Prior knowledge:
Pathway: Carbohydrate degradation; glycolysis; D-glyceraldehyde 3-phosphate and glycerone phosphate from D-glucose: step 4/4
Bound molecules: 1,3-dihydroxyacetonephosphate
Radius of gyration: 19 Å
Enzyme class: lyase
EC number: 4.1.2.13
Keywords: Glycolysis, Lyase
Family: Belongs to the class I fructose-bisphosphate aldolase family.
Mean pLDDT: 98
Low-confidence stretches: none
Structural class: alpha/beta
Amino acid sequence: xxxxxxxxxxxxxxxxxxxxxxxxxxxxxxxxxxxxxxxxxxxxxxxxxxxxxxxxxxxxxxxxxxxxxxxxxxxxxxxxxxxxxxxxxxxxxxxxxxxxxxxxxxxxxxxxxxxxxxxxxxxxxxxxxxxxxxxxxxxxxxxxxxxxxxxxxxxxxxxxxxxxxxxxxxxxxxxxxxxxxxxxxxxxxxxxxxxxxxxxxxxxxxxxxxxxxxxxxxxxxxxxxxxxxxxxxxxxxxxxxxxxxxxxxxxxxxxxxxxxxxxxxxxxxxxxxxxxxxxxxxxxxxxxxxxxxxxxxxxxxxxxxxxxxxxxxxxxxxxxxxxxxxxxxxxxxx
Length: 334
Ligand code: 13P
């Protein structure tokens, strides 16, 4: 493992003004997104949509890395340029989602565990050859007011994340470690903080056991936030302060960057929260974004599968990237 290379890729992804565009929806997930705008999920429509994202003018100022899905990593522009090559040529680092989805965890009703470790070493070697420089694995932590997640559910997911991260570093890829405590449910922000703390604590203990070098990874956590169905939604400042407090307790300062997922927040809320965290002052790590829905929802709404709307869709993407680029430095004004 060349730690200097890993460090320099991790730092480039979260350079000033920059974050990550998560465009790694699996086939079932992109079908859901396309269904919402009545576009059929064919291979060509998926290719065209990703081409619209990756060729949008100006996004390279705000996007340090893009996460791709296996199919997308192998696709090309209309002119035949492979997407990883197109992105790298624009100064955007290509990455790849390598997990194979969350499944029910046996004997732990309600908990999930993410699959995809078998054969991962060989897949990582191929992804690296295809141009990927970083990878992502998402653990899904179900939460309720009392019973979920179980202690073992947390442990199983932390262990899988650490095995994935060690394999990535061995292969020379920067692991983005994503333990996502979901926003679904009626729990309050206090419960989210307790669970997020337990999860981060377990994840960093496992990463350490597995000899993962914190300097050569990025963390992609949820923000600490009330469940969508909670009647008591916390304000922007409370979300920012609670999230930073929780992260400061459990995320080592050696980690170069934290890139939040948006997790179902509106595009505007995700930007507000990121800005408020950065406006609090300097933190031990870069605090940036790795948004999927919060960057793409306005793009899908503008595009609706029609070529005449491509320019509007690309403008919508640039706008969200620019605003999050500002928020990532605490300079966004709504
Ligand atoms: P969201 O920002 O839509 O949560 O997606 C980010 C992601 O990559 C989830 O794995």
